[in-house]
Amino acid sequence: MFNKILVSNRGEIACRIITACRELKIPCVAVYSEADRGSLHVAMADEARCIGPAPNRDSYLNIPAIIQTALMTECDAIHPGYGNLSEDPSFAEICETYKIKFIGPPAHVVEAMGNKAAARRAMREHGVPIVPGTEDGIANVSHARTVARDLGYPVYIKAAAGGGGRGIRLVQNEEDLGEALAIAQAEAKSAFGNPAVYMERQIPEPRHVEVQILADSHGNVVHLGERECSIQFRLQKLLEESPSPGVKRSSLRRRLGDAAVRAAKAVGYQNAGTVEFLLDNRGQFYFIEMNTRVQVEHPVTEMITGVDIVREQIRIAAGEELSCEQGHIYFQGHAIECRILAADGLNNFLPSPGRIDEFVVPSGPGVRVDTGVCSGSVVPSHYDPMIAKVICWNHDRVSAIARMEAALRSMRIGGIKTTVDFHLELLRNAYFRRGEIDTSFIRRRMNGEGRRYGEEGT
Ligand code: ADP
Ligand code: ADP
Ligand code: MG
Description:
Layout: E1 5-7, H1 11-23, E2 28-33, H2 40-44, E3 47-52, H3 63-72, E4 77-79, H4 89-97, E5 101-102, H5 107-114, H6 116-125, H7 141-151, E6 155-163, E7 166-171, H8 174-192, E8 197-201, E9 207-215, E10 221-233, E11 236-242, H9 250-266, E12 271-279, E13 285-291, H10 298-305, H11 309-317, E14 334-341, E15 343-344, E16 350-351, E17 354-355, E18 358-360, E19 367-371, E20 378-379, E21 386-394, H12 397-409, E22 412-414, H13 420-428, H14 430-433, H15 441-445
Parallel strand pairs: 1-2, 1-4, 2-3, 4-5
Antiparallel strand pairs: 6-7, 6-8, 9-10, 9-12, 10-11, 11-14, 12-13, 14-21, 15-16, 17-20, 18-22, 19-21
Helix pairs in contact: 4-5, 7-8, 12-13
The site of one adenosine-5'-diphosphate has 13 residues, from strand 11.
């Protein structure tokens, strides 16, 4: 096992990883930016080092500072969390060079899946269904025109290196294509350092259904069932659940699981990963991408399987075998996660950074809160606005919703605006309660009545 782990992230995921390390009795080192000096993850870790000024590029993306800290504090592994450096193949490679174990897949796998267009090719070649579209970059406007005519409008132009719901542009018709392509390429270049884009047909009113997988270095691959993540605003997930109310038949669940395991095996995957699919209203599913890291919504899977995904990540990276085999993974009950953002949930999710003067979290049977803040914390404006995740488990979906409503009603967050009231309204929505959801849900079912959920791009 590792001697010491450096956690190269912040917020709730850094705290989540530190908790897993503690249980495994591995000391850990937190890194922090100047804006995060007083953060919870710094207080929780055994040691902490400042790695630079507030902007991400100067701190949490500062590879030399992070590697140097790992060497100086004698860490033999780095957990990157999600976002930040978690899907940067050069970071994984530099870790390998310095003989520091990157807790994630091998660098070449991060790289292969990081190009979303190339990943589509690999998947199709291994019999995993993909959304109709290109597997190479779009060369120029006339190429784009030919492809789009073939696919039929509307189409999505997507950054090959994109992620986090960014770098995706919906094109309704040929007239808009030229301009959209130019903007998409420029955005891809500035946001991801790579102008390459590819094209996909729009799947109408799809559900986002993804499958969690675990793969060790001994060739064992298992899946931990699916998560439904259709409740999105501007392509960003806000509420996730497992199992998916859209996966009504066990045969579909089995096919999704098989496809995800096949995808993982196809690329020689190791560690925890997520295979994302769109599910259409006829029950067909299509691969969209693979996330080669721990996912924000991993707790809902933990709640229904009892598997500690972060612990498995660390064990796998240390060369151990998976602690569970497929035949011994059971899915029990239903779990829901609400992402609590420091943002105005009733007005376009406008960011609301500032000092949290009161923070009281719910508790009770089947209630879990993952957070990176406490009373008195300051939410900086530099980072992702997510401050907590409330996860509720119960025997079925209806009772899990009831438990979540009670939990959110007892939550008290003062000093900043949050998405708690948005979630309470969502949980009351009759369509949501019936499980009739797709990725256009917020725009179609929650607009109006004084709330503003403007342009979504879907
Ligand atoms: P999940 O798929 O786990 O729900 P999200 O898509 O919400 O994750 O992303 C998790 C975090 O990582 C967010 O802070 C998001 O902004 C960030 N993120 C994900 N992918 C990228 C990327 N390619 N570039 C920059 N940030 C990213
Ligand atoms: P990211 O890498 O930013 O997470 P994804 O490719 O996973 O991007 O897509 C993010 C979201 O965009 C999906 O969850 C879905 O809501 C929407 N989306 C992506 N591709 C399509 C498509 N071809 N048809 C319909 N919706 C799509
Ligand atoms: Mg995605």
